[in-house]
């Protein structure tokens, strides 16, 4: 056999092999874009499905008194730890050791001093904050540490200010999950008008940071002549501490955030709400509202005017930025990648969060639960890169303050969409009076950012910062909305947000709207596959025999 003929036969063999691979059938086959009639594709994989509510600490939902601190009831699936609330009100130096041990707070996380004006509450407040990384990479293995899921299976890296804590960064020795104090968003901080407040930043992180008290009345320098404005020129480097001093004269809803590489550090999560409450007698305010949400120990002034109070904190994340700290373990590489390689002008917002979570996890701790004829205060802050267009279904609320400045009655606006610029805050008065204006009546009313991308998580919808304004009869005993059971079971599934499962994969319409399914292999294709394989075997035998005969000759 000539070399030319052998080359032709080898080429023919290669072509037949390629054809065989293309025609190789399975027992079943996925449907194409326009599939023929399909068979059911089997039951939904439930291996990554979670309970909508873990119901881990149901006793925390009750109204209770701890060390003399009255803590309001919460209907949330994941209520605040009431011991954290008590410590935040009385100070870690004024509660029993039994109460302190039920928290993760350090003994000096928030300490209360003397009552200078003799009105029944402390006027000297000392706060200590650390900086923690969530969902960061570990040098010890291919896993993330101090994990905090913002939604099922979604773990972007985050940096947060956290109250100074004791013990490990994780819940226990058997998990990588962060302890409950280490979470997004950074805690809402509350102080009283006229209080002498010190905020100590203990930089436990590997990059420099500051605290800028955005909108908070504060002098430019401390009493010792040090920086008090938190600008980048006065960065607090790793392992260093810095004390900020304030005695705010003006009440309102403000912010605090890092002002080092501000565009990047805020987009990594280093921001929180800062509230100055009106000076009132016997006014023990809740210094930390961990995770924001419902305020379970309200100020005297708020109790007089409202039946409830909620903090609503909006944030967004760029997954390209957050992945940097998961991929590089060397602080020098992290700093270089963030400052030189990452271009903030080409950034995207992939994840949108309300109080540290994206839908459906927002249903666990960010429901606003009301009864009939209530008057609810909502403090709303926008720490996203983009504007928020907050829309509340079934209700029209009234803007009572912009950026911490109360508006006269004649300038207060009642509407159902609120434009909130980046770093802006508004106070809302939400009334559940069923009069067709303030409320359309009881229900499970969605509220969300009406910028359309914000209701998605990396493009998957429903997601983002959607939440629900729920009337009490429509919330079950675990704090979850009723009438949503079927859809919630699909959404509390990691496979959905990793784009491995259809939204409508169960239920009576799954055959129309779920996965396209499978269909039986075509007999014609099976016959062609057999023919091609037969030709391949015959050709292989022919080449082998011809090659042996040539060698003998």
UniProtKB/TrEMBL annotation:
Q: Where is the Plastocyanin-like domain?
A: 184-280, 340-453
SUPFAM superfamilies xref list: Cupredoxins
Residue spans crossing the bilayer: 526-547
Q: Domain of life, per the record?
A: Bacteria
Keyword entries, A-Z: Copper, Membrane, Metal-binding, Oxidoreductase, Signal, Transmembrane, Transmembrane helix
Q: Name one GO molecular function term.
A: oxidoreductase activity
Segment forming the signal sequence: 1-19
What's the protein called, per UniProt?
Multicopper oxidase type 2
Give the species: Crenothrix polyspora
- Write the lineage as a comma-separated list: Bacteria, Pseudomonadati, Pseudomonadota, Gammaproteobacteria, Methylococcales
């Amino acid at each position: 056999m000539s070399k030319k003929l052998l080359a032709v036969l080898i080429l023919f063999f290669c072509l037949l092999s390629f054809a065989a691979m293309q025609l190789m059938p399975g027992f079943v086959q996925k449907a194409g874009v326009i599939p023929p009639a399909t068979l059911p594709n089997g039951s939904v994989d439930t291996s990554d499905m979670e309970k909508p509510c873990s119901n881990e600490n149901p006793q925390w939902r009750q109204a209770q008194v701890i060390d003399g601190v009255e803590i309001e009831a919460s209907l949330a699936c994941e209520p605040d730890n009431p011991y954290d609330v008590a410590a935040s009100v009385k100070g870690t130096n004024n509660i029993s050791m039994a109460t302190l041990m039920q928290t993760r707070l350090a003994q000096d996380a928030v300490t209360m001093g003397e009552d200078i004006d003799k009105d029944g509450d402390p006027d000297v407040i000392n706060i200590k904050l650390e900086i923690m990384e969530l969902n960061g990479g570990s040098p010890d293995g291919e896993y993330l540490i101090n994990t905090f899921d913002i939604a099922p299976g979604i773990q972007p890296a985050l940096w947060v200010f956290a109250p100074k804590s004791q013990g490990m960064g994780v819940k226990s020795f058997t998990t990588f999950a962060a302890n409950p104090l280490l979470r997004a968003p950074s805690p809402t901080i509350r102080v009283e008008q006229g209080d002498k407040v010190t905020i100590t930043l203990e930089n436990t992180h590997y990059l420099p940071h500051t605290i800028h008290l955005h909108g908070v009345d504060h002098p430019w320098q401390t009493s010792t002549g040090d920086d008090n404005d938190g600008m980048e020129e006065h960065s607090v480097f790793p392992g260093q501490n810095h004390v900020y001093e304030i005695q705010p004269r003006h009440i309102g809803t403000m912010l605090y955030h890092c002002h080092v590489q501000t565009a990047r550090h805020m987009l990594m999560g280093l921001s929180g709400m800062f509230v100055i409450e009106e000076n009132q007698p016997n006014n023990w305010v809740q210094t930390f509202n961990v995770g924001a949400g419902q305020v379970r120990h309200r100020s005297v002034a708020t109790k007089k005017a409202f039946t409830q109070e909620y903090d609503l904190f909006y944030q967004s994340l760029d997954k390209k930025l957050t992945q940097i700290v998961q991929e590089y373990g060397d602080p020098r590489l992290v700093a270089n990648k963030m400052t030189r390689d990452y271009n903030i002008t080409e950034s995207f917002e992939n994840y949108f969060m309300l109080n540290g979570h994206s839908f459906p996890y927002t249903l666990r701790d960010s429901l606003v639960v009301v009864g009939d004829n209530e008057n609810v205060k909502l403090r709303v802050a926008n720490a996203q890169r983009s504007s928020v267009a907050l829309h509340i279904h079934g209700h029209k609320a009234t803007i009572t303050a912009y950026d911490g400045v109360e508006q006269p009655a004649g300038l207060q606006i009642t509407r159902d969409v609120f434009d909130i610029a980046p770093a802006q805050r508004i106070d809302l008065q939400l009334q559940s009076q069923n009069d067709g204006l303030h409320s359309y009546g009881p229900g499970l009313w969605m509220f969300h950012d009406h910028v359309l991308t914000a209701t998605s998580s990396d493009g998957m919808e429903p997601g983002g910062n959607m939440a629900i304004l729920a009337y009490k009869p429509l919330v079950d005993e675990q704090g979850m909305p009723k009438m949503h059971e079927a859809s919630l079971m699909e959404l509390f599934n990691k496979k959905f947000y990793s784009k491995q499962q259809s939204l409508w994969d169960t239920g009576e319409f799954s055959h129309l709207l779920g996965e396209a399914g499978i269909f039986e292999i075509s007999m014609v294709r099976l016959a062609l596959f057999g023919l091609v394989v037969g030709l391949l075997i015959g050709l292989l035998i022919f080449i082998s025999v011809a090659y042996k005969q040539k060698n003998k000759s």
